UniProtKB/TrEMBL annotation:
Tree of life domain: Bacteria
Keywords for this protein: Oxidoreductase, Peroxidase, Signal
Record field: transmembrane: none
Record-given protein name: Glutathione peroxidase
Coiled-coil zones: none
Active-site residue list: 61
Organism of origin: Pseudomonas mucidolens
SUPFAM superfamilies reported for this sequence: Thioredoxin-like
Length: 183
């Protein structure tokens, strides 16, 4: 009898995991290593059901000062549930050569507190899954600091070029639309 009672919680955990997996949008499947940390970010566990701004970054790009604007955007809306995910990439040949240097640019030079990953591929067949799905939904980033606003269901509701600053009224409108979306 005791064995049967022990099996029930194990069975519930198994099916519970399946249910959680089914609720995860394709965009958030998988993990990415966190910048200058030994941990990986389970994208589904950390971001499912949350409105997102996802941006590919580069430390030595002329648009790098947008880190300040992205941080301000994050601070303005994080209390409402917004998450910002920065994904450094050398796809356009403007990323630092080491993670330490990337981290210094993000954390020290610009005071970034939103989630940053280790440098990743964001274009083409070798792009990480997150950017493959973004490309399927709207298109691959055309340059560094390309911004995607994603609703709570994991669907891109707007994307913006590198020229669009984080405080642009159209980007703010998209963020507020993502915040208003139903989980």
């Amino acid at each position: 009898m005791l064995k049967r009672w022990l099996a029930v919680p194990a069975l519930m955990m198994t099916f519970g995991g399946v249910a959680l997996g089914a609720d995860c949008p394709a965009l958030l499947e998988g993990q990415l290593p966190k910048l200058r940390a030994k941990e990986s970010i389970d994208l589904c566990q950390r971001f499912a059901g949350k409105p997102l701004v996802i941006v590919n970054t580069a430390s030595f790009c002329g648009f790098a000062p947008q880190f300040k604007g992205l941080e301000a955007l994050y601070q303005r809306y994080k209390g409402a549930g917004l998450e910002v995910i920065g994904v450094p990439s050398d796809d356009f040949k403007q990323e630092a050569k080491t993670e330490e240097e990337t981290a210094k640019v993000c954390y020290v030079n610009y005071g970034v507190t939103f989630t940053m990953t280790d440098p990743q591929k964001v274009r083409g067949k070798e792009a990480v899954h997150l950017f493959q799905v973004l490309a399927q939904q709207t298109g691959a980033p055309k340059w560094n600091f390309y911004k995607y606003v994603v609703d709570r269901q994991g669907k891109v509701i707007a994307n913006f070029s590198s020229l669009t600053k984080p405080d642009d009224p159209d980007l703010i409108k998209a963020v507020e639309q993502a915040l208003a979306s139903k989980p």
